[in-house]
Automatic annotation (TrEMBL):
Keywords: Cytoplasm, Endoplasmic reticulum, Golgi apparatus, Lipid transport, Membrane, Nucleus, Transport. Ceramide-binding protein that may transfer ceramides from the endoplasmic reticulum membrane to the cis-Golgi network membrane, and is thereby required for the biosynthesis of complex sphingolipids. Pfam families: Svf1, Svf1_C. One of its GO terms (biological process) is response to oxidative stress. One of its GO terms (cellular component) is nucleus. It is found in: Cytoplasm; Endoplasmic reticulum membrane; Golgi apparatus, cis-Golgi network membrane; Nucleus. Transmembrane segments: none annotated. It comes from Lithohypha guttulata. Belongs to the SVF1 family. This is Ceramide-binding protein SVF1. Residues 215-376 form the Svf1-like C-terminal domain.
């Protein structure tokens, strides 16, 4: 019966049978032997898998002028039958609080460069420098947001464990799915994002994340927490997902703390807790109102970091199925109990990151970009 359910789930995207937590080999297990690995250019290659997957390279920006924005390429494939790519950009509070400039455009004639660290399509190009320290992002795909950006890494990039990957499947030697995240936690951005009303000077801090969900997204995770906090000295990032009941509601949390030229900590011993929630009347999901995040390393030189505070009014509530490529929408749109919603929050100098390195303790206010995602 499980085989029948599994086959139906793979084809139709319906709920998977209950395999239990032993059916996921989390990256946490790798991190017990090797907490993290610094990224090389080879680690940033596009996978471009020809089976069901969603692969993204996403850049988050916090400008010196106080503007938060992002740029993203999505590569998606369903069952090896069809591949689609999308370029997304978003400028928050473009016309005032709560009015955002959002562009999402399908891409034609897409492909990868010879090293597979770069991506191209009609009117879009993403390239990584030979030394692996700098991305350039160019897009003239949508006249509502023309992008010309340079992102330079200012601290080491990392992936947790040996390869940053959690594997799904009842046979560890033959997994049927995978998930990874690779980070540049601290980088500098320069350039412009040009709309029809304004040209934004995008100079400031950046975070880059290369992610892969090598299976149907709603099978891989039911909930997500993402935190990006930037202070003058520190960058703190965290990505946490919780699997559906099929994989035992297993929680995997990867993250790190960096400052210029140095990765202070990276690993899996992190937590994200919603201290207060309220029921969103539109989606009926528990919208978080206050957050507590902790990063901890006890071996070697101890590191403890804590971020806690009220999230305030959300910046946006995103109906995922209204913004993703149709091919992904068709994967999950008809599944009972699946309604992907992202609650997004932005705060500036309202929250404080407390960092303790050995005997040294510091506290700094900074800017937060945070997402809480509910899928099923």
């Amino acid at each position: 019966m499980n085989w029948i359910k599994k086959t139906l789930a793979d084809v139709a995207g319906t709920q998977e049978p209950i395999y239990g937590p032993e059916a996921i080999q989390t990256v946490t297990k790798q991190a017990e032997k090797k907490p993290y690995t610094e990224l090389t250019p080879n680690d940033l290659k596009w996978e471009g898998k020809q089976h069901t997957n969603v692969e993204t390279q996403t850049f988050y920006f916090m400008t010196d002028e106080g503007v938060t924005c992002m740029a993203q390429i999505i590569y998606s494939n369903v069952m090896g039958v069809r591949t689609t790519c999308q370029f997304n950009s978003k400028i928050y509070d473009h016309d005032g609080p709560g009015k955002h400039q959002w562009c999402s455009d399908p891409l034609d004639n897409h492909g990868f460069d010879e090293k597979r660290t770069g991506f191209f399509a009609d009117d879009v190009a993403l390239s990584l420098s030979d030394d692996g320290t700098t991305y350039t992002i160019k897009s003239a795909k949508n006249q509502d947001c023309i992008c010309n950006l340079t992102v330079k890494r200012t601290a080491p990039g990392f992936m947790v464990g040996e390869n940053g990957t959690s594997y799904y499947g009842t046979d560890p030697s033959h997994p049927w799915g995978e998930m990874f995240h690779k980070f540049w936690p601290r980088a500098a951005v320069s350039g412009t994002m040009q709309t029809k009303k304004k040209t934004y000077n995008v100079n400031g801090r950046a975070v880059f994340i290369h992610a892969l969900q090598g299976m149907k997204p709603h099978h891989a995770a039911a909930r997500w927490n993402f935190v990006n906090f930037q202070t003058p000295t520190y960058s703190a990032v965290m990505m946490e997902f919780t699997t559906p009941p099929s994989y035992g509601k297993t929680v995997v949390n990867v993250g790190g703390i960096a400052k210029d030229g140095e990765l202070i900590y990276a690993g899996c011993t992190n937590t994200a807790t919603h201290l207060a929630v309220t029921t969103d009347p539109v989606s009926q999901w528990p919208e978080p109102k206050a957050l507590l995040c902790k990063w901890t390393r006890k071996d070697g030189k101890p590191v403890e970091a804590e971020l806690m505070g009220d999230l305030g009014e959300r910046a946006d509530r995103v109906d995922v199925l209204a913004h993703v490529p149709a091919i992904i929408k068709n994967l999950i749109g008809g599944v009972v109990g699946t309604k992907p919603i992202i609650f997004q929050y932005i705060t500036k100098d309202q929250m404080t990151l407390k960092v303790k390195e050995g005997d040294n303790e510091t506290s700094e206010k900074g800017s937060l970009f945070c997402e809480a995602t509910f899928i099923s």
